[in-house]
Design brief:
Helices cover about 55% and strands about 20% of the residues. It is of the alpha+beta class and about 220 residues long. About 5% of the residues are buried.
Length: about 220
């Protein structure tokens, strides 16, 4: 807006302050001033009264000094000032673009946060499953130890049972031997008893003058 053609774009338009929400006046002319390498627009503005009712009613004229970056937008009927608080539309376009990208990033972050929460829930579920499996494993280990002890007891009992069987067999053999010995003793006793009886009978017969028992 440094040359005359650009300056004329500001003339014959209402000047509005966006931060204050006020109509500052009607621009009648503008000049450019340069100070320390920075140039400014000096606007001649006629203050308006009751603009909404009668836009042609103006009061005294005053000068307003602004920087080009103070201008937010220049429309066909108005010039809008940001007064350093609202950036120009060209910058706002970039801001809006950045805001859009920011929203996209925020949306992605929200999606990732949601995914993280879902993963946390899945991890918690898996941890509960792991804890349950660990309890089952400990129970199986206890059962395995009990089974080992039971097996050892069964082996000991089986050994004791085998020894008992052998002992029973030994007793059975002893009983058989005793029976054989008993039978032999009885046979021997019967034989000896018969001899004794015969001897006694023979002696008695002999005493009586009878024949010996051999005739019997």
């Amino acid at each position: 807006m440094g040359d005359s053609s650009e300056r004329t774009q500001l003339v014959n338009k209402l000047l509005i302050s966006l931060p204050r929400g006020q109509v500052l006046g009607f621009i009648t002319s503008t000049i450019v001033e340069v100070e320390k390498g920075q140039y400014f627009f000096v606007l001649k503005v006629k203050k308006t009264e009751n603009v909404g009712e009668s836009p042609t009613m103006f009061s005294e004229e005053k000068k307003i000094r602004i920087r080009p970056e103070d201008i937010v937008n220049v429309g066909p009927d108005v010039v809008i000032l940001g007064e350093g608080k609202v950036p120009p539309l060209r910058e706002m376009g970039g801001i809006l673009e950045r805001a859009k990208k920011y929203e996209e990033v925020v949306q992605k972050l929200r999606e990732k946060e949601k995914l993280i929460e879902e993963l946390k829930e899945e991890i918690a579920r898996l941890q509960r499953k792991i804890d349950e499996l660990e309890r089952e494993l400990r129970r199986y280990l206890v059962m395995k130890e009990d089974f080992k002890n039971l097996k050892e007891q069964l082996l000991r009992q089986e050994g004791e049972l085998q020894m008992a069987r052998e002992y029973v067999k030994s007793l059975e053999r002893m009983v058989q031997d005793v029976e054989v010995i008993k039978s032999s003793v009885l046979s021997l006793l019967n034989s000896e008893l018969e001899k004794i009886v015969r001897t006694v009978v023979d002696e008695e017969l002999n005493v009586r003058g009878l024949k010996k028992s051999g005739f019997l």
